[in-house]
Amino acid sequence: MTEALARGWLLAWIAFGAAPAGSLVLLLVHRITGGRWGEALAPVLRPTAALLPLAALGFLGVAVALPALYPWAADPGVVKPGVASLYFNPPLFIVRSAVALLGWSVLAGLVLTGRGSRLVAGLGLAFYGLTISLVPVDWILSLEPRFTSSAFGAGIALHQVLAALSVAAVASPRGLDGRTAPDLANLLLATLLGVLYVGLMSYVVAWYGDLPPKAAYYLRREVGPYPALIGVAVAAGGLVPFLFLLVGAVRRSPGALRLVGLLVLVGLTLRVCWLVLPAWGPSAGVAAVAASLWLTGLIVLARLALRLAGRLGWRLRHV
User: Fold this and answer.
1) Tally of domains within the chain
2) What gap in Å lies between CA 86 and CA 313, rounded to an integer?
3) Which domain of life does the protein's organism represent (predicted)?
4) Which domain holds residue 65?
């Protein structure tokens, strides 16, 4: 049971941390480019990015349970000796994750307190680009260390940005009206296409490469509930929102975009489950139940943290 709770925590933590990281990226991009879309979405993006320190704190639950989560942490022999000594070992794993999470949290603090100049934003995006190429491999791909994907980091970066945009659509801030809603719709459409494209091309390249470790990764996801899981994720969280976003009336309606954002969030959550759960074999079901409970608790805790900050008189400055 302890192992299932640890695995559930990892899954919930990955799903929870996507929107805060994506919100930071959007705030950094807007600081460089400007635009009414950032001003309209700021009331949602700013408090969501402010949750990054909470996500960083949540990593402690992952760090203390590494042997229960990752096969290379329990037995270094599952990877090549050079890989185990130079990359996949607990100290370096924790250092890489800590640098990324603390760096993102510092960037969020600079942006939210009005200290994020364009230079800081540019350097911050470069730092994010570097770290997002590393930590998704650590947190997700290393659950099955024989599988590698050079596009995985880019796919997770798009996933995080799409999660942030979907949260903004669901929250529908006051600044989102008939003039700014199409901007959000365009961003949602472009990022959604990016997620679908990278995911599909990674599958095509890996599968038709006919390499046993890559084939085994997808074969584990073609049994049990996983084909249905990814099917629902792609259909309900990808294709249906894509078709909705092609309709002019939907693109101009904050209420319709709220539905689109909700569908995308469901699809992204199911996709994270599809990426993570098959690595744990028969115990994946218990981990999924634990993850749903942990994720609910994290969302409640996040709402309480933001409400408490407001009562204490803490106010995030405007962009």
Assistant:
1) 1
2) 47
3) Bacteria
4) 2-311
